[in-house]
Amino acid sequence: MRPSAGKKAVRTANTGDILKRTGSLWTHFLSRDCRVLRQMLRMEMQIFTLYSKSLPLDLACRVWDVFCRDGEEFLFRTALGLLKLFEDILTKMDFIHIAQFLTRLPEDLPAEELFASIATVQMQSRNKKWAQVLTALQKDSREMEKGSPSLRH
């Protein structure tokens, strides 16, 4: 089975560019030299399970609803919104505790706070909207497939 272009684009996205938007949390990751954590935070697990493993079920269902309405950009906005919401807590944790916390978020997480945090996230990179960035990544992925005999089917 061939992975979708969206998944390929997500895998090619630079985690640093995404996490730099979190400001002091990114600085914390750098100061702690959490290379492994930065690699783990590719967000694939969270995004491709649609947060069903980390969020309480009622919140995961709301995220799914908005995802169905708005598309995959909302999943990334959710990831950044969660990081923003818990930035103060995460900057005080070490690697193991950050990984544990992000794997299973608090059961009493208020939906209003989460969606307010998500609403503050603007998905632009170098003055390009998310759809433009995704299209460029997909185009690059297709061009790489054309140029590499091992990637052809």
Would you write up a description of this structure?
This protein has 153 residues and is mainly α. It has one domain (5-138): Orthogonal Bundle (Cyclin A, domain 1). 65% of the residues lie in helices and 3% in strands. The protein contains eleven helices and two strands, in the order ααααααααααββα. It has helices at 5-12, 15-19, 24-31, 35-40, 44-48, 57-70, 73-85, 87-90, 95-103, 111-119, 130-147; strands spanning 124-125, 128-129. It has a two-stranded antiparallel ribbon with strand order 1-2. β1 (124-125) and β2 form a beta hairpin. Residues 7-14 have low confidence and may be disordered.
Brief sketch in words of this structure:
With 153 residues, the protein is mainly α. The chain has one domain (5-138): Ypt/Rab-GAP domain of gyp1p, domain 3 (Cyclin A, domain 1), CATH 1.10.472.80. It contains eleven helices and two strands.
List keywords for this structure.
two-stranded antiparallel sheet, Cyclin A, domain 1, mainly alpha, single chain, 153 residues, 65% helix
